[in-house]
Write the structure tokens for this entry.
Amino acid sequence: MRILRPIQYLLTFFIIVFILALIPYQKAIVFQPNHSNAKFTYIPVRNETYFAIKYTHSIHLSDVVESYRITRDDRIRQYELMYEEFAIGMPSNADNGETFEQKNGAYYIKNMKRDFPYFHLRIGQVRANHRVIFKNREYPLSRSISPGTSVKVEIRKLNFFKQWKGVNILESL
């Protein structure tokens, strides 16, 4: 029986470690492919709550930046939109409670409070060149997500195994 005790302790230790690895603890911005078995891509977030999606508009070929904040209840709030051209698909003014500004040749809609549990995004195949901006750095989404892929963008807590199976955008460059 004395021999079994160290084995029991070791087995108990491994069971506890395995269970802890299943507990979701790492908050992340997750880009989950909608109709594909491809790996999901994510950005781990700790105290950071801001990110943006930047792309080149397919018609007027200028940059558009959609700025987001992660809310306390892990929703995604769009708080600003920046674009350079009034063209098809771009707003001409702000909605109620929002402000419209023109600065340095760009147009801004600020003070937006549009909350989403998630949103869908199709990674551009030709011109869009979707990039996520996080901590003032741009990360091309096409490096870890195939162009043309439709993804669901959401805030999720990931366990160790999910992180291991996914692709961390910050480490993929």
Residues 4-22 form the longest helix (19 residues). The two ends are 53 Å apart (CA to CA).
